[in-house]
Amino acid sequence: MTLFVIVSMLLHIVSVTAILYLYRQSQKTAAPEEKIEQLLISYTEEMKKDNERLLQRLKPQQAERVFQSELTQALQNQEEKEAKRYEPPEPAGENEIEVTPAAQALRLAHIGKSKEEIARELSLTSGEVELLLKKRDGH
Description:
Distance between the termini: 153 Å
Keywords: Membrane, Transmembrane, Transmembrane helix
Order of helices and strands: HHHH
Strand content: under 5%
Number of helices: 4
Oligomer: single chain
Structural class: mainly alpha
Shape: rod-shaped
InterPro entries: DUF6115
Number of strands: 0
């Protein structure tokens, strides 16, 4: 039985030694992974700083370009506005005012034309002109 205990103890010692050996090996391989991770982090931080410096240098140049383009555009718009004179729109055919024969007769009477002259000018009978003028006088 003592032999059995001695063999068991030897096997335990061998197992513990093997476990320790494997643990140390895994620590050695983990170290490069951590180093690589740290290197990547430092490189990305360095790139971020470089990008920020570049943006800081480009901002004044971009602002100047934007200002110049906006100024040029505003000047062109002003020149176009000055070149164009205001022209009122032509009235559409539907919106035109039609002067009625009654209004024409009243206008001619106001000028001082006689009933016969008004009738001749408007191609109306003298009775029609007389009727239109009586409406004006309120008779």
